[in-house]
Amino acid sequence: MPKLLRNLTGLIGFFLLWEAAVRSGLVPEVFLPPPSEVLVTTVELLSQELFLRDVIATLLAWAIALLISIGIAVPLGLVLGNVAWLRAATRAIVEFLRPIPSVALIPLVLLVVGGGPEAKIALAVYAAVWPILFNAIYALGEIDPVLLDTARACGTNRRQLLTSVALPHAAPFVFTGIRMSAAVALIVVVSVEYVAGAASGLGKFILEVSSSGMRMDQVLAGTVIAGLIGYLINEGLERTGKRLFRWNEATGRTT
């Protein structure tokens, strides 16, 4: 609760400064409506079926992309983290692909999979794979050798070493990667909806209202809702991580 109060205090302070800047004329209201007006517009939008469908479309694409990313990155990270020669052999291609921005791949993805929901899901998967993958590889590479030697001395075979030592050690780090990827996936989904002109989604809504006239209150309302969704996702995953990995002293640093 203290953390929530601190967050709310900072947020309320920001909104008060924003309101004061607009009301005092420092910022033209036509370009930046006050938060009181944006809040009213936000409530109105949440009561509209078409807007809620856009929100659901974004959340559905985000959830699918995150699940696919986990399904790809976790097994691959475990393999690369355990097999040194394979990790070395794939390092160059991984380091080549990782820095490429997902948005830069929009034309290629549109040509390959078309402009439907598959495009934003594919790009979100591409962006969300890396945090999970690298956290898994890092976690397995940072296991204390003394811990591994002790387990081997106790007669632990390779399979038991993986399931009883390596995986419990890596789990909090992998979960941190999932939490990071959840935010990345949401950003990419909304961005692709905006840039590529998706048929539905929050990004599509923001694009339409920003190009149809001076309805900055709706633009900001859509942006606020996207930010609120991201905050709730991160908060939920953070609380889940603390409960799941309370036993691990690394939880405070990794989740």
Overall description:
It is a single chain. With 255 residues, this protein is mainly alpha-helical. The chain has a single domain (48-254), classed as MetI-like (MetI-like fold), CATH 1.10.3720. The protein is built from eleven helices and no strands. The longest helix has 38 residues, at 158-195. The relative contact order is 0.12. The model is unreliable at 250-255 (pLDDT under 50).
Tell me what the CATH architecture is: Orthogonal Bundle
Fourth-level CATH superfamily: MetI-like
Q: How many strands?
A: 0
If you average the pLDDT, what whole number results? 84
CATH class label: Mainly Alpha
Please describe the topology of this protein.
Elements lengths: L1 H22 L11 H11 L3 H34 L1 H14 L8 H8 L3 H25 L3 H9 L4 H38 L6 H10 L4 H29 L6 H4 L1
